[in-house]
Amino acid sequence: MSLGEFDLISRYFKQTNELANDNGVEIGIGDDCAILDLPDGYQLAVTTDSLVAGVHFFEDVCPYRLGYKSLAVNLSDLAAMGAEPKWVSLAITLPRVDEPWLSEFSRGFFDLARKHNVTLIGGDTTKGPLSITVSAKGIVPRNKALLRSGAQVGDLICVSGTLGDGALGLASKFDTLALSDSAVFVDALELTEPRNQLGKQLINYASSCIDISDGLIQDLHHIVEASQCSAQIDVENMPLSDAMLGEIKMHHVTEQQALQYALAGGDDYELLFTISAQHYSELCLHNLSDKVTVIGKINANNDIKVNLTKAGEIINLQLAGWDHFKKNK
Amino acid sequence: MSLGEFDLISRYFKQTNELANDNGVEIGIGDDCAILDLPDGYQLAVTTDSLVAGVHFFEDVCPYRLGYKSLAVNLSDLAAMGAEPKWVSLAITLPRVDEPWLSEFSRGFFDLARKHNVTLIGGDTTKGPLSITVSAKGIVPRNKALLRSGAQVGDLICVSGTLGDGALGLASKFDTLALSDSAVFVDALELTEPRNQLGKQLINYASSCIDISDGLIQDLHHIVEASQCSAQIDVENMPLSDAMLGEIKMHHVTEQQALQYALAGGDDYELLFTISAQHYSELCLHNLSDKVTVIGKINANNDIKVNLTKAGEIINLQLAGWDHFKKNK
């Protein structure tokens, strides 16, 4: 691509970036670096995620949704630390300059950025195979970040929102499933809502936290391994959406399949956190931004890191992906 | 790639990262975000650059040098702001897990990181076409960052080091050039030394600064446009390396070619800055980390943004790439 074409891209993202200069941004796009102000008493939280065509999305994905999701997955990592999103860098590699595509991509990206008051502070546009790397930065009160390593024996295990819809949405893109309304599940997959407001509310209450990107059980493993404990999850308490319950009722999805999506599906981007019973009762006095469900509790360290229970009894659910996961971890 | 293979990559970069926990890093690799401490009185400087195979480098490039350079170009952006490098995120997309390649890539990356006391604080590894996105973060005393926009009429224009070697190195990779020693020029291209020490020394002295990635004239344009002034450059003052002067003496390179490389070649990663005569004389009292040469001065705003002079007279040098650049900017 010629300089002129790249100039156009930079100008495009610069114009759309109306929040710059109002968010601790002393210097935004247009110099060698961005220069940013952190408020006193805060630490910087930084996360980076890449989305690559053919791996994380299909080349013909709706660009609005790709722009939206490439930011959403990064904001979700900030949410998992209790951090308030502030700034984002975007490195985008494109096979060619395609103005309608860029227009839609940036519309999706900035629709979510505006909602969370996030300012684009720089990045890079390059010619090459389509991929997006987003680095999001947020602020968190000093020494208050929600880590994976703080879970204590006896803590409750909680999850925000509902689980499994995104995984069913992904399945419906690969297979022809007889669903009453597949769009709601595809929306859950592609227009995921990062839980940054809830993440901030969990500060001073939750003992550990992670966002669910790879599936509840896999991400719970990260918590119990970092915290040197084990967990039990009551499958009867799994929060399923009304849409998922509707599909079960219509016999489009079995209960076993719904559990598979909820426990091992991934792409939920809900917050999974642990909290003492005392703190949980205090937390519930707040007007929480999202629904929170208690799904289990933390036990002492054990060779079996995560047990599933039903009516108080340990069950052995055959989940696809489960053996593979255990083998690799 | 399986989870296991990606685990290996993460572990690999984690092990090599011996500086973590000693650089304001409260949480490094291994949680949802890194958590970083900025010292009081400092601002955050952030830059992001992507290197894509087939665009910025050949797929068969020496991985040590690719690892080194992918960090070097980002540190150079921090140098141009006068920022001290602290932290870096690395997003790397690979067609397959190739341990010898990764070992060499990370050796080059960390050799430079150690030299500048930079800590790897996170990133992402993905399967896909080879590309590298680095986001480097540094600190700069509040309101002291060196911007492009501060040049004043009458300021001297200075450049660090020597110019043109990297461009000749690049040319020697495309064409068979009769050079006495092409390795020194290829080294200048691939093992570029970012000028972070000098950048810090320029704080409180330089009125504007940029690093030369696209060629002296093109990057000088960024300064004079941001500062609303014009510039004149005396081509007789161009700092050329002993190696380049040797090739001219041997008639392997003409003086005109050497000027072309020095003025419009790019890939120098030297600092280009403006400074008042008073500040320049004060700066020269310091033990500067790199050679600095005065190459011109800043004039009042004008339609012609950059004039080249020889013996005080404006000359019209026919530089390849020059018209293309003017047209696009």
TrEMBL record, chains A, B:
Its EC number is 2.7.4.16. Mg(2+) 3 binds at D32, D77, D211. Mg(2+) 5 binds at D214. Pfam families: AIRS (PF00586), AIRS_C (PF02769). GO terms for molecular function: kinase activity. Keywords: ATP-binding, Kinase, Magnesium, Metal-binding, Nucleotide-binding, Thiamine biosynthesis, Transferase. Pathway: Cofactor biosynthesis; thiamine diphosphate biosynthesis; thiamine diphosphate from thiamine phosphate: step 1/1. It comes from Psychromonas marina. This is Thiamine-monophosphate kinase. The keyword Nucleotidyltransferase does not apply. Catalyzes the ATP-dependent phosphorylation of thiamine-monophosphate (TMP) to form thiamine-pyrophosphate (TPP), the active form of vitamin B1. Mg(2+) 1 binds at T48, D49, D124. Mg(2+) 2 binds at D49, D77.
